[in-house]
Amino acid sequence: MFSAIMDIYRHPASRRKWLTIASGVFITIALVAWYGFGLAAPWAPLMTIAAVLAGYDIALRAWASLRLRILSIELLVIVAAIGALFINNHWESAAVTFLFMLGAWLETRTMSRTRGALKALIDAAPVTATVLRDGRTIEVAAHEVQLGETVLVKAGERLPVDGEVIEGTAAVNEASITGEPIPAEKSPGSRVFAGTLAENGLLHLRATGVGADTTLARIITRVEKAQEAKAPAQRMIESFGRWYTPGVFVMAIVSYIVTRNVELALTLLVVSCPGALVISTPVSVVAGIGRAARAGILIKGGEHLENAGRITALAFDKTGTLTEGQPRLAEVVALAGQSKDDVLLWAAIAETGSNHPLGRPIIEAAQAQGHLPTAESLEEIAGMGLIARHDGYEIAVGSHRLFDHLGIGFSAEAKDGIARLHGLGHTVVIVARNGEVVGLLGLADMARASARSMIDRLHALGVRRVVMLTGDQRPAAEAIAKAVGVDEVHAGMMPDDKLDRIRAMRAEGLRVAMVGDGINDAPALAAADISIAMGASGSDIAIETADIALMTDDLGKIAEAMEISRATLTNMRQNLVIAVLTVIGLLIGVYTGTIHMAGGMLVHQLSVLVVILNGMRLLRVPKAARARVAVVRGERVAP
Amino acid sequence: MSNTTIRTTLRSDELSCPSCVPKIEKALLALPGVEKAEVKFASGRIEVEHDAALTDVDALVNSIAKTGYAAKPSAF
């Protein structure tokens, strides 16, 4: 019993909790006795006990600070509470100390929930790892795994280290790193990250990074550094806070000398900490950056948060972010009176014997039509195409150069078709049978289904110009850009050209964000107002250098980053307004005599709580984003 | 920096007002062998550079507890 009480006493948080509860109980008894039974006698002693209980911990802290020569808010509160007891205002003394403790307790709880977005990440890393040593499996602390050692991960376990799969397959949920809810298939050779979750299977990993040297640890460190980076507004407020508290202290003394009003002076002491003000911006920044990190978006500090919300132009290089990254059969053109199905079939018969990347989509499309016979003989002419024999026909499939080589001419109809497909940005595959061109196939890296809506979303957020700067050939780039609603395309660009484009846009007064992979685009990234690195989960350089690092190759995350940035800025402004109004309101209230000690403490603590709770709103995933996740999950279940 | 100086990261969940930052920092710096102490209010991280021979990690935690806050050592 005694040792249990000592445990509670030793742990500061639980000590405060029980002191607050005890103090509240005595206040309640006193109130019930007075208002319920009309008993006046117990009032003063009960309230005094309540004040002593709640004031005990405040006094401890005040004393600890005083020894370090710090004029703390606790000291002011305890002076006010003792003062109130001396002027026989027991109720005020009890209420002030109780409200201070209760408020601090609630503030601690809510504040730690605001920091909670990151706590989930920190907790994602398991404490222990199962490793294979001398042919036996043993359990060791996760940070004591040796590099190169084999680590075993069972279904349902989180990965303890960064590594490479050497044996086994599993679906690994990488949401903790990428924010992506769909698990990724991992097989030997795949890179895996500490803190991700193996949903099934059994993996043997070779450890490549442990402890602080994992992608997860680096992300956490980066996010914390970002949260700690003080925004200009915050620095201003902190210097204000430094003279505000002593200032009010002096005001209290002066007010007492002038008015001889003890209560007024004590009330001033109670409201002298600009709690809501000093906490207003950090709360929003911590919550906003934490919320973004959970979605796989690393924003490197309050300053970038501000810039990201105001982007008016977005330049990007990665054609791959808009496309599926694999060619697909976009169009079949039948010539010389043939049917489209036959053209496709002949092309596919020839392609069955080859493993050219352009062959696969053709074969897949033909297989979807029905039975696909194999060629009887096949000749591959490197860099040009294929010549196959089937059912007495000679089929030639390939590029323009193959037909020049074979001496097969093009009809006017064929030439028109080729020019049209080129104009669409397609790669053209020509099909001939027995020396006559019978059809054309247009292959293209198609736009992702989601690309259009991503660009629309950026426009809706006020990005006036979405610009593609690419080294690709013009028609291909333009076709994709047009399909998804990109405003401007600059193709065939060298790194210096990109830099010039960024400078030109900035000269026009646009706030330019540049999306790149962090290394090749370094000059353009440096010239932009804000640099964004994509697909950063594997690249430490990208995480370190960019202003915003997106863990996946998803343009939609840019819109999300902008939305979070704006919400955070709005939130910060709301908090500042609440805090400033509270400080002004309290001072006016105190001097006009409408606010006394207990009321002053109540308003002060409430304002701090309101500011924290407002910041916490940022942690909620907006409805639209939740719906998107649900859709993605639904699709996963369907097949 | 002597060669026994190490860097320890602690985390506290209880920092609810930035006014506790100087309190904890000063309390840590008052310990023997503590060369640097930084409290980050936003993340709740406490970074200390200290001579482990003079002041170990437990002593850091105790000193923070005396100012009224609970903190735990953390790997990063």
TrEMBL record, chain A:
Q: Which SUPFAM superfamilies match?
A: Calcium ATPase, transduction domain A, Calcium ATPase, transmembrane domain M, HAD-like
According to the UniProt entry, its GO molecular function terms are: ATP binding; ATP hydrolysis activity; metal ion binding; P-type zinc transporter activity
The answer to whether keyword Transcription applies is: no
Q: What class of enzyme is it?
A: translocase
Segments traversing the membrane:
18-37, 43-63, 70-87, 93-111, 240-258, 264-290, 576-595, 601-619
Membrane topology listed for this record:
Multi-pass membrane protein
According to its UniProt record, where is this protein located? Cell membrane
Identification of the protein by name = P-type Zn(2+) transporter
TrEMBL record, chain B:
Query: What protein name is recorded for this chain?
Result: Heavy metal transport/detoxification protein
Q: Does the keyword Lyase apply?
A: no
Q: Which UniProt keywords apply?
A: Metal-binding
Query: A single Gene Ontology molecular function, please?
Result: metal ion binding
CDD domains from the xrefs? HMA
Residue span, HMA domain: 6-72
Please give the InterPro entries that the UniProt record associates with this protein. Answer: Heavy-metal-associated_CS, HMA_dom, HMA_dom_sf
Q: Does the keyword DNA-binding apply?
A: no
